[in-house]
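Technical note accompanying the year-one report. For the benefit of new consortium partners, we illustrate the data format agreed upon in the data management plan: each record pairs a sequence with a structure-token string. No post-processing was applied to the example shown here.
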Amino acid sequence: MRPSYACGSAEHTMARRRFLAGAACGGAALFGGLNLLTHGAAAATMAKKQKKILLFNMHGGLSQLETWDPKPGTETGGPFRAIPTSVPGIHISELLPKTAQQMHHLCLLRGVNTSEDDHGKGAYMMLTGRRQNPAANFPELGAVAAKTLSPESSPMPGHIRIVPSGGGGRGNDAAYLGPKFSSVALGNGKPPQHTLLPDGIDEKSESRRQSFRKSADQSFAARHPSAMTDAFLNSYDSAEQLMQKRDVFDVEKESDSDKDRYGRTDFGRHCLLARRLLQNDVPFVQVMHSNYDTHNENFDFHQELVPQFDAPFATLISDLATLGLLDDTLVVVMSEFGRTPNINLYMGRDHWSKAWSVVMAGSKVARGAVYGATNDKGTEVVDGKVDHGQLFHTYLQAVGVESTDNFVLDGREVPIADPSCEPIWKVLA
């Protein structure tokens, strides 16, 4: 159901539709099958590192002023206080008391300026690192991570989205990397659909069925080699492997004490599932939390939504650090844009992409740090301005992917990230 406070854009009149396809900065249209390989040096690096990315997508436009960059006591600041964190001198909103105690693991980027106030276009930019353009379509971060971080022999999907409802299908978010690297959606944190054997088919019968299928597939592929055939065969092999790993996706396997620590809420369960997936070497997990499109009653809705995020997120960060996973996992908290410093006549904040915040943690990212700053009213970036292209490069560099390298597409080199941008080196340790 569409929230009453949302802007009424097409993205918010449908139930979690996929972000707009097609896009990027310039260049000719790109086509190709599954015969893509990362550059040899990048592939060798990935074989050694095996890093992971966990992305929190705060869909709708999270307010930076009610979270990461509060401005209390100003005409734009709103009613909430700024509270101290575990790092002296760094303050965040009082709506995030648990996260404040994990600040020593986090890096706040307070100078984001993407200059795009449209939901679909903003989301595309943040997830692909490129501005939307009908001339070309580029893969989302999850597809790039799955391609560069996941071993060829891995039985697990490399690109998983945990969404509030629905799920079970594959996304259309890998562009020229091919369907192998498209996302698998887990609706409301449940295991993928159709991963249990039908009644009347036991393991022995299933083994014979799969042997026959593989023999027939290999015969067909030998006579009809093509990217489409490869994709078809891969989908069946992936499904078989997924069925064998079904328990990995079942958060009910976790202890009651962990369920209590994360909170017996949808988002708490989603965070616990994300931890479970990372522990089982899934290279990219995206967790959705929405809807922050607070054109009306911004403060009431953030007072409800942000605390829902706070405790499970803080628990997950603490667990990843305790388990030793944070050193190998990049955590990102992003949205498609922020909210206006000015408060409208409905006590809401509108779309604002000129000065907002993104949070990172783990892997090669500096910890207990702030990069960038806005002015005293939060209306513009005054130091450390960064955009979507720089962020995309930085995410990849943080997990050991040489973002200035290329994919090879039918003998053509295609940049992994926007070649006109570069990483934010000052936040990389």
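Partners are asked to follow this layout when depositing records. The longest strand covers residues 52-59.
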